[in-house]
């Protein structure tokens, strides 16, 4: 009889521990669900949990380690452009499938799925706006749309934006993030490199400012063209910037590359990038650079008065 009671007591003790484990796993699942619901964000670098509202207030930069989380094009425009000054350009342009390309699925189907899922027509948004009251033409690439790949629409929208800026005498800023040219459009995609570069040359001939901002990642044909043609090239901290992939280069050279290879810091050290600007300082930095490069307007009367003043002073 006593043995039965002891066995029941031991069994109930095991049940109690089992229930504790179950309740613990349940609370863990509940905690994971809360994190997934967007209340909290776990940093992929330092694993610190941050309240999502605080993270957004800090422009998606981890306050603990400074890691720059990827942001979409809409958020980037909100961060850079003054309120109620954004005027989008060429929103009607839509990609097509001239080669009727097919890999695991039809390119046309892939485009339709991206457009329905993300809500973008293609991988770039362009427009006119103001940064701290200064007019600007801004292009923002979006990595969510097929890895920010550069197809015909991306090239056409950026070219038209640059031409508008040249006509209006606006500075141009392009926020770059891309995996390179879009292979599904073949040669048509590669032609965009030359087309955008030609528009930037005309912009430069007009003595106007162009600043590319390289974010994580900026690779392939974008790096080989307009991302590296700026008068002043800025980058975000720790951004991956390069042309070919690390593995391809290692296989070609048959040697191990340094850990910081193709980072913004490495490119700054070797002169490919002019400065690394944290995202929280980017808007003010761009405004300062644009203000410094604004043309100085002087009237003929002002020049004449200054000349006469200098002459009279010299005579005295």
Automatic annotation (TrEMBL):
Enzyme Commission number(s) of this protein: 2.1.3.15
Keyword field: ATP-binding, Cytoplasm, Fatty acid biosynthesis, Fatty acid metabolism, Ligase, Lipid biosynthesis, Lipid metabolism, Metal-binding, Nucleotide-binding, Transferase, Zinc, Zinc-finger
Subcellular location: Cytoplasm
A GO term for molecular function: acetyl-CoA carboxylase activity
InterPro entries (UniProt xref): AcCoA_carboxyl_beta, Acetyl_CoA_COase_Trfase_b_su, ClpP/crotonase-like_dom_sf, COA_CT_N, Znf-ACC
Annotated PROSITE patterns: COA_CT_NTER (PS50980)
Span of zinc fingers (C4-type): 43-65
Enzyme class, spelled out: transferase
Cofactor note: Binds 1 zinc ion per subunit.
Catalytic activity: N(6)-carboxybiotinyl-L-lysyl-[protein] + acetyl-CoA = N(6)-biotinyl-L-lysyl-[protein] + malonyl-CoA
UniProt key word Nucleus: no
Keyword ATP-binding found: yes
Domain CoA carboxyltransferase N-terminal: 39-308
Binding site for Zn(2+): 43, 46, 62, 65
Subunit structure: Acetyl-CoA carboxylase is a heterohexamer composed of biotin carboxyl carrier protein (AccB), biotin carboxylase (AccC) and two subunits each of ACCase subunit alpha (AccA) and ACCase subunit beta (AccD).
Name under which the protein is recorded: Acetyl-coenzyme A carboxylase carboxyl transferase subunit beta
Gene encoding the protein: accD
């Amino acid at each position: 009889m006593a043995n039965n009671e002891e066995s029941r007591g031991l069994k109930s003790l095991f049940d109690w521990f089992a229930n504790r484990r179950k309740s613990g796993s349940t609370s863990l699942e509940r905690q994971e669900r809360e994190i997934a619901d967007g209340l909290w964000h776990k940093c992929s670098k330092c694993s610190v949990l941050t309240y999502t509202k605080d993270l957004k207030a800090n422009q998606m930069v981890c306050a603990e380690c400074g890691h720059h989380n990827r942001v979409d094009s809409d958020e980037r425009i909100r961060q850079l452009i003054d309120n109620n000054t954004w005027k989008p350009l060429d929103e009607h342009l839509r990609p097509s499938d001239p080669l009727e390309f097919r890999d695991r699925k039809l390119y046309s189907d892939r485009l339709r799925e991206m457009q329905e899922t993300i809500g973008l027509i293609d991988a770039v948004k362009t427009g006119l706006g103001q940064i701290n009251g200064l007019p600007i033409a801004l292009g923002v690439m979006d990595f969510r749309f097929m890895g920010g790949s550069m197809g015909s629409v991306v090239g056409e929208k950026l070219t038209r934006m640059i031409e508008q800026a040249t006509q209006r005498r606006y500075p141009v800023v392009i926020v770059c993030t891309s995996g390179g040219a879009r292979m599904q459009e073949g040669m048509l995609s590669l032609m965009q490199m030359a087309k955008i570069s030609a528009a930037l040359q005309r912009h430069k001939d007009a003595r106007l400012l162009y600043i590319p901002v390289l974010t994580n990642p900026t690779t392939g044909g974008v790096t080989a063209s307009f991302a590296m043609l700026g008068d002043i090239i800025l980058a975000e901290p720790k951004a991956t910037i390069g042309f070919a992939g690390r593995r391809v280069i290692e296989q070609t050279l048959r040697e191990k590359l340094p850990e910081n290879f193709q980072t913004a810091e490495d490119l700054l050290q070797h002169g490919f990038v002019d400065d690394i600007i944290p995202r929280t300082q980017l808007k003010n930095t761009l405004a300062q650079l644009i203000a410094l490069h604004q043309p100085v307007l002087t009237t003929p009367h002002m020049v004449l008065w200054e000349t006469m003043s200098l002459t009279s002073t010299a005579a005295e």
